[in-house]
Design a protein that fits this description.
With 433 residues, the chain is α/β, with parallel strands linked by helices. It folds into three domains: 201 residues, 3-Layer(aba) Sandwich (Rossmann fold); 74 residues, Winged helix-like DNA-binding domain superfamily/Winged helix DNA-binding domain (Arc Repressor Mutant, subunit A), CATH 1.10.10; 66 residues. The protein contains 15 helices and 16 strands. Helix 6 crosses helix 7 and helix 8 packs across helix 11. The chain starts with 7 loop residues before the first strand and ends in a 10-residue tail after the last strand. The structure holds adenosine-5'-triphosphate.
Length: 433
């Protein structure tokens, strides 16, 4: 294959979507390399720019700043050496498994005479032997994804990129497919030189990859790189494996700053994005921690509560913001306030939350705006517009939803759906005249 240098070099890459004042910095000054023979996983919370990076490496999107090199050459346009496997595959429903794979070979210019044989080999390779003549509708989700893999492999890519390829599958199919992919990769029966996997499943990344690139969001950036020095096949119960998962958790979680950095929408600086967590989930977390004696290992807790990384991080972030927990080195501890909350009555809980929420700039701003209004009612559109100075329209809507959900819980303010207005629960007494 020639050359011992890196296959992919991402150098100081930033990607900015939109125009001022509504820009989204999807990734900021990201640098890393992928070397031949490596299986690399990009891991991080939702919105940290993983898919954006994958799109840039495959040439489907261009960096706003910085450069991507492939085998030492600046990448321009589509990367002909890379293929991408998505979460779900668009298969042609009117073609059989064989037809779908043959079509991918045709697209690559493989002559008709060789297509059939090669397609059959690929189908065999992904473990779909016997299903050549089945139609997509006759296959399970896991099998359809295997056809997707066969089609991606038909392109004989040097670099196989995968964007959450197992996340749409049920647990067992995902596990089986991971196993088959690892076997293929380790057996070196493929011309693939390197694999880049995007995931937010920590265990999956530690189970498969040689190196983990950990990212955080707002803006999307690389926060750490970790090598996984474990031979294959890896065992999840292995102490090193668990320690590695703990380390990843410790690096990604618990990054909420004590004093919420923040400002109100429209003020210079960056508005703090509130995590989309239900108070019930936060309450559940504090109760569980109380039961555990006030302390738990974050990774095991997530496993026990059956939370995906993203959900867990969001709930933990909200609990941290409210001052109920502290996270350090992969452990989560209940604070005295968190303990008080977990043991409090519903009414007392509302009061505790109200006090803490008013420290969050967006909530305080809504609360004060309503108080400044004569009848304590303001159109939701006003808040939307202001929030859109800092967030995309979708994110602004989400922030408003979170604010309403939290504000309602704490009885700071409420929302009138018919009028699309926010209002104070306790309307200031009208002036007498
Ligand atoms: N075409 C676009 N226009 C505007 N903003 C975008 C666009 N694509 C992505 N973004 C924003 O860029 C940021 C990074 O998105 P990206 O999809 O790359 O993250 P991700 O880590 O892959 O997230 P997920 O795991 O949810 O897919 C997000 O804030 C997202 O809203």
């Amino acid at each position: 294959m020639g050359g011992t240098g890196p296959l992919v070099e991402v150098r100081n890459v930033s990607k900015i979507y939109g125009r001022p004042p509504r820009q989204v910095v999807a990734v900021e000054r990201v640098s890393f390399e992928i070397r031949p023979g490596e299986f690399v996983a990009l891991l991080g919370p939702s919105g940290c720019g993983k898919s954006t990076l994958l799109r840039m490496i495959t040439g489907l999107a261009q960096p706003s700043e910085g450069e991507i090199r492939y085998r030492g050459q600046p990448l321009r346009g589509i990367n002909p050496y890379a293929t991408i496997v998505f979460q779900t595959f668009a298969l042609y429903p009117w073609l059989t498994v064989l037809g779908n794979v043959e079509l991918a070979l045709k697209a690559r210019g493989v002559p008709p005479a060789q297509r059939r044989e090669r397609a059959l080999q690929l189908i065999d390779m992904v473990g779909l032997d016997g299903f050549e003549h089945a139609y997509p509708r006759e296959l399970s989700g896991g099998m359809r994804q295997k056809v997707g893999f066969a089609r991606a492999l038909a392109a004989e890519p040097e670099l196989l990129c995968m964007d959450e390829p197992f996340s749409a599958l049920d647990v067992l199919s995902a596990e089986a497919l991971r196993g088959e992919l690892m076997e293929l990769w380790l057996s070196k029966r493929l011309p693939i030189q390197a694999i880049l996997l995007v995931t937010h499943n920590i265990e999956e990344a530690v189970w498969m990859a040689d190196r983990l690139i950990l990212m955080d969001k707002d803006p999307g950036r690389v926060i750490a790189e970790l090598e996984v020095r474990l031979p294959h096949p890896r065992r999840r119960k292995d102490a090193y494996f668990q320690a590695m998962v703990d380390r990843v958790y410790a690096t990604i979680a618990g990054r909420t700053e004590e004093q919420v950095p923040g400002k109100r929408p429209g003020e210079p600086g960056r508005a703090y994005r509130m995590p989309e967590a239900r108070i019930n989930a936060v309450a559940g977390l504090t109760e569980k921690l109380l039961e555990e004696g006030g302390w738990a290992d974050l990774y095991r807790l997530a496993e026990e509560l059956r939370y995906e990384l993203d959900d867990m991080l969001t709930i933990v972030e909200a609990a941290e913001l409210l001052g109920f927990v502290k996270v350090a080195e992969g452990d989560i501890t209940l604070t005295p306030l968190g303990e008080a909350f977990a043991e409090a009555s519903i009414l007392a809980r509302k009061e505790i939350v109200a006090g803490r929420l008013l420290r969050l700039p967006i909530i305080r701003w809504i609360y004060e705006t309503l108080h400044a209004d004569d009848d304590g009612r303001v159109s939701a559109d006003y808040f939307r517009e202001q929030l859109q100075l800092d967030f995309t329209p979708e994110e602004a809507e989400r922030q408003l939803d979170i604010a309403i959900h939290w504000g309602r819980y704490a009885e700071l303010f409420a929302y009138d759906e018919d009028a699309d207005e926010l209002f104070l629960e306790e309307v200031p007494a009208p002036a007498m005249d």
